[in-house]
Amino acid sequence: MTAPPSGSGAPALPRKVHAGYALGSLATGAFGTVPGLLLLPYLTDTLGVAAGVAALLVLLPKAWDVLVNPVAGRISDRTRSRWGARRPYLLVGGLALAVLFGSIFAAPFGAGSAAGAYVAVAFLATATAFAFFQVPYVAMPAELTSDYAERTRMMTWRIAVLALAILVSGAVAPLVRDAAGGGLSGHRWMGLFVAALIALGAVGAFLGTRSAPQQVVTESEPSLRAQLAVAGRNRPFRALLLCFVVQSAGVATILAGVQYFADQILRDPKTGPTLLFLCFVGPALVVMPLWSRVGARLGKLAGLVIASLILAGGGLALVAAPLLPAAVIYLLVALIGVGYAGQQVFALAMLPDCIAYDTARTGRRQAGVFTGLWTAGETFGLALGPGIYGLVLALTGYVSSTTGTSAAQSDTARLGVLLGFTILPALLIALATLLLRPYNLTEALLTTLPTPTPLSADHGVVVGTKAANHHEEGTTSP
Q: What is the pTM of this model?
C-alpha cells in the first residue's frame, strides 16, 4: 500500500517506510522516558544517594551529549555505505544503546557511593551510544522527502509510535520492577526489559527503511565549525531549538516527578505511576490525527503554540491535586497528554522544514549537523528536568532511602514534590512559546525555494565494500 500523493508533486513515501521509520521511536521513547522517570528515584530510594547528588548524577552524563551529538551528526553526514549515510547507525548505535542501557541498572556494587558512581559512568556511555543512534535517525526525514505535508505525515507516524513507546516503557517498566521484587533485583530485570524494547526499535527501523528512496548526497561545509556557523545563521532553526530545549526540560521535570507524585500526593506508589502514564499517553494516541488536521488548517507554528498552552494549562490546574478526587487528577493528566502529543508532533515536523530551508538556501547537505544540535539540545533539556526536580527535592528537604521505598517526608518536602510536578514545568513550557517569535517558515515560503543541485561529497567515512566503489561518484548504494 502506498501513501496518498504529496502536495508538492514529490513522490509519496510508501506507508511501510513511514511505519518502519517510526519503529525507531521505540528506542528513542524508551531511553527518553525511563531514565527520566525511574533513574532519580532509583538513586534516592534504592541506592541511598542524596537528592542533590542524585540530580547531578542524572544531569552531567546527558549534558555530555551537548558535545558529542554535533560530532555524531557530522560523522553521519560524511558516511558512505551500501545502506546509506544514516542506516548503519540505526543498527550499530541502537544495539549498543540496548546493551549499555541494561548495564545502568546492573548494580554490581550494591547500594552506596560506589553504586552511584557506577551509574554515572554507565549512563555516560549509554548517552554516547544514544547520540550515534538518535542523530542519524532524526536527520532522515529531511532527506527522505522534500514535501512539506509529507514530513508532517512522517512525524505523525513517528509520534504515534513514540507515544506507544512512552506508554509501554513508562507504564510497564515500573510493573516489571515491582513484579521482580523491587529493589536492586527488580531494577535489574526492568533494565533488561527496556533494553529488549530498544533493540526491537533499532532493528525495526533499520529493516523498515531499507526500501526508502536513495538519499541525495550534496556538498557539505568543510569543517564542523563552519557547519555550526551555518546552523547559527538559520533564524527559524535557532528559535525552534531554543523553544524545544526549554519545553523538553519542562516535560522531563514532569516525568521525573511521576513516582514521587504517586508516592506523596496520590499515596499510591504501586499502581499510581502506571495509571498516570496510561492517562498521559492513552489520549495522545487518540488525538494524534486531530493534531495533524490542526496543522493542516492553522499551520505548524500555531499548532505548536496551542498544544503547548494546553499542556501548560493542565499542569497549572494540577497544583490543586491535594484537594481533588483521584478521577479529576487523572483527567487533568490526560489533558496534559493531549497537549504533549501536539507539542511533539509540531516541533518535530518543523525541524525538517528548517533543514530543507537551509539546504535550499546553501545548496549543501547538513541535516546531520542540524539534527546533532537539535538532539544535543533535546537531550540536555531532558537531563535538566530530573536535575531541576532533584534540586527542588533537595531544597525542600526530601529524605533518601536504601529500602526501595520512599521514606516518610515532611510537609515541606511534599510541597516540593507537588510544585516540581505542576507549576514549575507548566511555566517553562508556556513561557518557551515566546521564543518562537523569529520563526517564519510557512508552506508557501518553503514551496518557492529552489531545489539544490546535488554535488559530489568528499572526505566521507566509507563503510562497506559497495560504498567504496561508488565513493567517487558521490552516491550511495542500496
A: 0.70
Partner residues linked to 81 by β-bridges: 463
Q: In angstroms, rounded to a whole number, what is the distance separating the alpha carbons of residues 36 and 9?
A: 42
The pairs formed by 325-328 with CB atoms below 8 angstroms and a separation of 24 or more are: 326/266, 326/268
Contact indicator for 179, 271 with CB cutoff of 8 Å? no
CA angle 215/221/227 to nearest 5° reads 100
Residue from 369, 333, 227, 260 nearest 36 by CA? 260
In this structure, what are the phi and psi dihedrals at residue 169, rounded to the nearest 5 degrees? Answer: -70, -45
List 461's β-bridge partners, or say none: 79
Q: Would you say residue 419 has pLDDT above 90?
A: yes
> CB within 8 A of 111, min separation 6: which ones?
46, 47, 48, 184, 402
Cα(331)–Cα(319) distance, integer angstroms: 13
pLDDT of residue 103: 93
3-state per-residue secondary structure call for the chain:
CECCCCCCCCCCCEHHHHHHHHCCHHHHHHHHHHHHHHHHHHHHHCCCCCHHHHHHHHHHHHHCHHHHHHHHHHHHHCEEECCCCCHHHHHHHHHHHHHHHHHHCCCCCCCCHHHHHHHHHHHHHHHHHHHHHHHHHHHHHHHHCCCHHHHHHHHHHHHHHHHHHHHHHHHHHHHHHHHCCCHHHHHHHHHHHHHHHHHHHHHHHHHHCCCCCCCCCCCCCCCHHHHHHHHHCCHHHHHHHHHHHHHHHHHHHHHHHHHHHHHHCCCCCCCHHHHHHHHHHHHHHHHHHHHHHHHHHHCHHHHHHHHHHHHHHHHHHHHHHHHCCHHHHHHHHHHHHHHHHHHHHHHHHHHHHHHHHHHHHHCCCCHHHHHHHHHHHHHHHHHHHHHHHHHHHHHCCCCCCCCCCCCCCCHHHHHHHHHHHCHHHHHHHHHHHHHHCCCCCCHHHHHCCCCCCCCCCCCCEEECHHHHHHHHHCCCCC
Residue that the C-alpha cell 508556556 belongs to: 430
- Mean of the per-residue pLDDT values for the chain? 79
119, three cell numbers: 551509574
Model pLDDT, residue 368: 65
128, 64 Cβ separation under 8 angstroms: yes
Look at residue 87 in the predicted model and tell me its pLDDT. 77
Q: If pLDDT is split at 50, 70 and 90, which confidence band does 210 have?
A: confident
* Residues whose CB is less than 8 angstroms from the CB of residue 459 and which lie 6 or more positions away in sequence, other chains included: 78
Tell me the C-alpha distance between 143 and 153, whole Å: 15
Does residue 375 register a pLDDT over 80?
A: no
d(CA 132, CA 129): 5
